[in-house]
C-alpha cells in the first residue's frame, strides 16, 4: 500500500485448481448407503470431476425390506389426474434411481452449473469393460456400519417394483 491506496497487483490472487477430465473418478457403490453416496458424488460433480458409479444394484437402502418396498409402492401411486405425463417419472432400474437421487442433490433446476455437473455423471449396473481397468474408490463414511440384515439392496427393491434384468 502506498499513500493509503490498495495496490491491485498485490491483492490476494486465487489460484485455480486443474481438474483432470480425461479419466473419470470411478466409485464402486457396493455396500454404500444410498443418500450418503449420492451426496459425496454430487460434491465431486460440483467440483468439476467426471464421475462413474458402478455396481448400482448393490447400493444399500437403510431400513427393512418390507418398509422400503411399501414406501416405493406408495411413491408409484403418485400421478396426475389429468395426464400421466404431468406426474413424476417412476424409475425402476437401479442405475437410473441413483442418478435421479444424485440429480436432486445438485442445483439442477436453479443453475446451469447443475445441468453441466449432471452431464458428467455416469451410472452403471455391474462394471463395464472400459471401466474395469480403472482404479475404483469407496467412501468410508458412506459404507454401512451395521450388519447387512438392517439394509435392503437397491436391486431387490427395483426387482419387486418392476425391473427386469
Helix count, DSSP H or I runs of 4 or more residues: 6
Shape: globular
How much is the average pLDDT?
Answer: 87
Distance between the termini: 68 Å
Spatial order of the strands forming the largest sheet? 4-2-1-5
Q: What value does the Rg take, in angstroms?
A: 20 Å
Share of residues in strands? 5-15%
- Summarize the amount of helix as a percent range: 25-40%
Structural class: alpha/beta
Largest sheet: 4 strands, parallel
Encode the helix/strand succession as letters. Answer: EHEEHHHEHEEH
Task: Report the oligomer.
Answer: single chain
Please tally the β strands and state the result. Answer: 6
Give an account of the 3D structure.
This protein is α/β, with parallel strands linked by helices and 165 residues long. The protein has helices spanning 34-46, 65-76, 94-103, 112-119, 129-132, 154-161; strands at 25-28, 51-54, 60-62, 121-123, 136-137, 151-153. A 4-stranded parallel sheet has the order 4-2-1-5. Strands 3-6 form a two-stranded antiparallel sheet. Strand 1, helix 1 (34-46) and strand 2 form a beta-alpha-beta unit. Helix 1 (34-46) crosses helix 3 (94-103) and helix 2 (65-76) packs across helix 6 (154-161). It is globular. The model is unreliable at 8-18 (pLDDT under 50).
Characterize this entry briefly.
This protein is 33% helix and 12% strand.
Question: Key terms for this structure?
Answer:
about 160 residues; alpha/beta; four-stranded parallel sheet; two-stranded antiparallel sheet; 6 strands; globular
